[in-house]
Design brief:
The protein has 345 residues and is of the alpha+beta class. Helix 3 crosses helix 6. The radius of gyration is 21 Å and the shape is globular. The protein binds zinc ion (ZN). The site of zinc ion (ZN) has 6 residues, from loops.
Length: 345
């Protein structure tokens, strides 16, 4: 396993200081598994202004399809061969088909009846129960032997900067035989690693990071939390690997509770930087894939210009799929570590 980085330097003549030469550093890192490159640059302080939430939220409940007065009238039902009862309901959480599917088995799950929950008020119980509702869907599509029941995935876009068109907290839940790009690349690369090294990449990564310590955050049960070496997000990514677990449905209730607990710690940590929005994706192997380890990526999102709604993704990322992170993941680690203090081994 190699953690490769190339340091670069830009020289400019600085008009603010009588055209004195100024050196601006940057770094290009390669993800040790896939070789995907990620740029560390700009080096601004990780502190963003938050919007006026009251103004942002005002009026959005009136037209929200996930609010309790509308959700049972507006949302569609699954056909009886997939889900005889049409929707899965657990207390005030409801799972129904995605009206804008990107695969044949796509669902949306509301995380309860409350329209707006500030990021730091999303507690681990809510996440645990919402994930569990999605897992019930996964078990049901497995039970009917659905051809798409290969990779069971939860994606979470929280708030508009992360791509959510609705304020109401919800999860994207889908089962697919078509692994998404980065997950597919990781699965192939992890298989190649296993073939060559005769060990599991993810086990080796956790062992290395735990020993090295610069990017390791802590352990909760079997879940290992670390800041990613080659992050995708502008404020870094947190990678969580679950020890010994190959695929989504191998996660135990304890694992899911630990994932939920860790996610609330990340939200608390990033909230201090002014972040109020994030993406979170499951990455899973197919059942029995010994090269794979279940992991998730938590990636904070922001607007580069709040007033203009300028996204944190431009041409470099959108068309080259080249990422920018504005601080070293090792520094981001120190900002998040207080949340994990008691668990660091
Ligand atoms: Zn709502």
């Amino acid at each position: 396993m190699e953690f490769r980085a190339t340091r670069k330097e830009t020289l400019i003549l600085n008009p603010a200081k009588g055209m004195a030469r100024r050196s601006i550093p940057s770094e290009i890192r390669l993800d040790p598994l896939t070789g995907r490159s990620a740029r560390i640059c700009h080096f601004m302080e990780l502190q963003w202004p938050k919007p006026d939430f009251e103004r942002l939220i005002a009026g959005t409940a009136k037209t929200c399809p996930f609010c309790p007065d509308k959700v049972m009238q507006i949302t569609p039902l699954f056909p009886e061969e997939i889900l005889p009862e049409g929707r899965l309901i657990d207390d005030d959480r409801i799972l129904f088909p995605n009206i804008a599917p990107y695969d044949s088995l796509g669902a949306v799950a509301t995380m309860g009846s409350i329209h707006y929950i500030p990021m730091t008020e999303i507690d681990s119980q809510r996440i645990f129960k919402s994930f569990n509702l999605a897992f019930e869907f996964f078990r049901r599509v497995e039970a009917v032997d659905h051809p798409e029941a290969v990779y069971h995935l939860i994606n979470w876009n929280y708030m508009p900067p992360a791509g959510s068109s609705l304020i109401h907290p919800h999860l994207q839940v889908f089962s697919t035989s078509s692994a998404p790009n980065l997950m597919r690349q990781e699965l192939h690369a992890a298989q190649a690693y296993l073939n060559t090294a005769k060990t599991n990449y993810w086990d080796d990564l956790v062992a290395y990071e735990q020993k090295d310590g610069q990017r390791y955050l802590g352990t909760i049960g079997r879940t290992h939390w670390l800041t990613a070496f080659a992050p995708i997000g502008v404020a870094g990514d947190v990678l969580t690997v679950v020890e010994g677990v190959r695929s989504t449905l191998e996660l135990t209730d304890n694992d899911v509770a630990d994932l939920a607990e860790g996610l609330t710690r990340l939200m608390a940590g990033y909230d201090r930087m002014g972040i109020y929005s994030f993406n979170m994706n499951f990455f899973t192997g197919a059942a029995g894939d010994d090269a794979a380890r279940f992991h998730l990526l938590f990636s904070p999102r922001t607007f580069f210009n709040q007033a203009l709604g300028t996204p944190d993704i431009g041409a470099l990322r959108n068309l080259f799929n080249e990422t920018l992170c504005m601080a070293f993941p090792e520094e981001i680690n120190t900002l998040l570590r207080p949340e994990f203090k008691q668990e660091v081994v």
